[in-house]
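Holo prediction — magnesium ion.
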Amino acid sequence: MIYIKTDAEVELLRQSNLLVSQTLAELARHIRPGVTTLYLDGIAETFIRDHGALPGFKGYAGFPNTLCTSVNEKVVHGIPSDYTLEEGDIISVDCGVILNGFYGDSAYTFPVGEVKPEIMRLLEYTRASLEAGVKEAVAGNRVGDISHAVQKKAESGGYSVVRTLVGHGLGRNLHEGPEVPNFGKRGSGPRLERNMVICIEPMINMGTKNTRVAADAWTVSTGDWKPSAHYEYAVAVREGKADQLTTFEYIEEVLTKR
Ligand code: MG
Ligand code: MG
């Protein structure tokens, strides 16, 4: 089901997604070799509750934690654990909140300490593929215009696009229509309308596009155990230019100071 939001609902979604942006920036202060993913999860949960919101993922379809923490070959939906981050890891942190009845949802892949240049390049291309998708999130375009732009940018770097998971509409539900694949044909799919709010979230792999699901029934990994990166923005569709409800500015302020 696709729900077109009112202007007032878009403002509420802006607040929810702003809190996610701030939570990810708080985590940026703590991500370093030697910390566990469960420690990061605790920081996020406390931060979210201290701001009058609820963790959006905890209990969603039975997910046990506040964050999805997906390290290296893990694509998404990693469950926080006693795994200790190591120098050279990358970690995708996906965070959701519920504030005033509306969800925020966004993800950022952080380098842990010094990361190999070829893996930093994967991060750069994944981020650029997200930005290319956002440029197409304008009224009158179709979902396939976003999908095509993401895929084109990612594949231009020699990377592959995960097919088994997609972006989505966002509102009073964490996952609403339309689905927003990261691959597809220009001019295909549902028409984008003003005040549709969608999450664009490329999951881009260094090697094969194929994925596997772990025995925990959540953690998605690459089929060849090569690294995967993931970034996610929530945006409101507008005429001419998408209205970005997520910002990575707070994260990057923290990262550049470190
Ligand atoms: Mg999402
Ligand atoms: Mg997410």
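READOUT: Residues 7-257 form a domain with the Creatine Amidinohydrolase fold (CATH 3.90.230.10).
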